């Protein structure tokens, strides 16, 4: 008698499918979670988002400035005359 691979595959797929459907039915989306927050927590979340976006903007400006600088592409040891 051989091992029932087909039946095992069906049962395993059914279990995983059931778990996925249960997860989709019970886990709220990020928008639902945000809507369910208390007003003071929403203000904190908004403040954190604004701070993160400002920090990312500053970092992007620094990266753009370094990329446009012709000296930034050369290693510091490439010119022995220059010392910091």
Automatic annotation (TrEMBL):
Name by which UniProt lists this protein: Cytochrome b mRNA-processing protein 4
Role description: Essential for the assembly of ubiquinol-cytochrome c reductase. It has a direct effect on the correct occurrence of the Rieske protein, core 4, core 5 and apocytochrome b.
InterPro entries in alphabetical order: Cbp4
Lipid bilayer topology: Single-pass membrane protein
Superkingdom field: Eukaryota
Cellular component GO terms held in the UniProt record: mitochondrial inner membrane
Major subcellular site: mitochondrion
Pfam families: CBP4 (PF07960)
Coiled coil: none
Disordered: annotated segments: 60-84
This protein's record includes keyword Transmembrane: yes
Similarity annotation: Belongs to the CBP4 family.
Compartments where located: Mitochondrion inner membrane
Keywords in alphabetical order: Chaperone, Membrane, Mitochondrion, Mitochondrion inner membrane, Transmembrane, Transmembrane helix
